[in-house]
Specification:
mainly alpha, 3-stranded mixed sheet, about 400 residues, about 60% helix, 15 helices, 3 strands
Length: about 400
């Protein structure tokens, strides 16, 4: 393993969620009728295994955004506020560019860019720009602001907008999962409204205090235990009685399986308080558990955790290409994986896909195949720290 001053437990957790993220995206491209309504949240057709496959991947976005804030804090320990702010803003602008012009092409292979979906990389980019401004505030103020956003943003759920007015688009940008037409045959969708995610990154930035150079490891473990357990307990209290924190209330069903699915079917777009509690809470407990753990398996997770952006862009491309290869092997039209408006809106993908067992096999194969590529890039990055542009990849 390449020597690094990075904090291993953080990279292990980041690597783990990156691996889970690939499972969700493989399911998107490979599961039977995934493009036409066979969703894990569809109570009429789902089951515990399918829903669990989706639920475990819920940890990806909040952990990724939260740890991006933590990494910003740690990076800033050896930088001035001005240097850190410049880095965050420029990197944020770069991520927004990548989301719009690179990731969207890799997701759809549609050269017309008929559908622009603003997802997690976009959200991280916007959050970094916001954090680049917020870091000039006292950390206590950043912490309070982050807490207020996380705890209070669900109070805004009843405010909804429609249309393409400037106010509507600003609201889609901030809090409402919606989109608008940007010209003939082109549509933009805000899958990741940024308000709640700004709160998550702000809290992640403050969380970095527990990992700074002179931090007390024993005290850190106590805080990780306390915050993690408190978050989980608050989730169960709020969710059990549908008190607050998620407009998607759970309901008892005729079977225990469906009732469990309903209970844990929390809102991600935008992330509700309940969603963030049940994802970030266990993630912090995991960080505590692996604080000093080092095994062959964690060494492999470290690889993905140290080159997350490189892995993200690469894995989308590979999954999409493998889906095309699957169509060729089975004698179907590979152009079905050119996901333009016609393909998605006319039901051409009805009946396309494979069993969930096949999804898992493809997922494992792709992660294993990406490992040596990511490891080679990690080594290159570690051995070329003088190349400033590598910090943007």
């Amino acid at each position: 393993m390449v020597k690094s001053n990075r904090i291993q437990s953080i990279d292990i957790l980041r690597g783990l969620v990156m691996v889970f993220m690939a499972l969700d995206h493989v399911r998107d491209y490979f599961h039977i009728n995934a493009f036409t309504g066979n969703y894990p949240e569809n109570m009429e057709s789902t089951n515990l295994i399918l829903f669990g496959t989706r639920f475990i991947t819920h940890y990806c976005a909040p952990v990724f955004v939260f740890l991006a804030g933590t990494s910003a804090f740690l990076y800033g320990q050896k930088k001035t506020k001005g240097q850190l702010s410049k880095f965050l803003i420029t990197r944020g602008l770069w991520l927004i560019f990548v989301e719009i012009f690179i990731n969207n092409f890799l997701w759809w292979f549609d050269i017309t860019f008929g559908f622009t979906n603003l997802q997690v990389i976009w959200a991280i980019g916007v959050c970094m720009i916001a954090l680049g401004v917020l870091i000039y505030l006292p950390k206590r103020v950043i912490l309070i602001l982050g807490m207020l956003i996380i705890l209070g943003h669900n109070l805004l759920d009843d405010i909804t907008m429609q249309g393409t007015s400037a106010l509507s688009i600003i609201w889609y940008f901030l809090h409402q999962n919606n989109g608008f037409e940007i010209g003939a045959g082109r549509f933009m969708w805000f899958s990741y409204p940024v308000l709640a995610w700004i709160g998550v990154m702000a809290l992640g930035y403050c969380f970095g205090e527990l990992y700074k150079n002179n931090a007390d490891a024993t005290l850190r473990k106590k805080w990780l235990l306390f915050i993690g357990l408190t978050a989980i307990a608050l989730f169960f209290i709020l969710r059990t009685w549908n008190l607050y924190g998620d407009g998607n209330h759970w309901l008892p069903y005729e079977t225990t399986e469906k009732s469990i699915i309903s209970f844990f079917n929390v809102s991600k777009y935008p992330p509700s308080l309940s969603f963030l509690l049940i994802t970030l809470g266990p993630a912090l407990l995991f960080l505590r558990a692996i604080d000093t753990v080092k095994t062959k398996f964690t060494d492999k997770l470290l690889v993905f955790g140290r080159v997350p952006f490189f892995y993200y862009v690469l894995h989308i491309f590979v999954i999409h290409v493998v889906a095309i290869i699957g169509l060729l092997i089975t004698g179907k039209d590979w152009k079905l994986m050119i996901l333009d408006n016609e393909t998605l809106s006319t039901g051409m993908l009805q009946g396309y896909g494979y069993s969930l067992f096949t999804v898992y096999l493809v997922w494992i194969a792709i992660v294993v195949a990406l490992y040596p590529v990511c490891k080679a890039y990690m080594r290159y990055k570690a051995n070329n720290r003088d190349k400033w542009w590598l910090s943007y990849l």
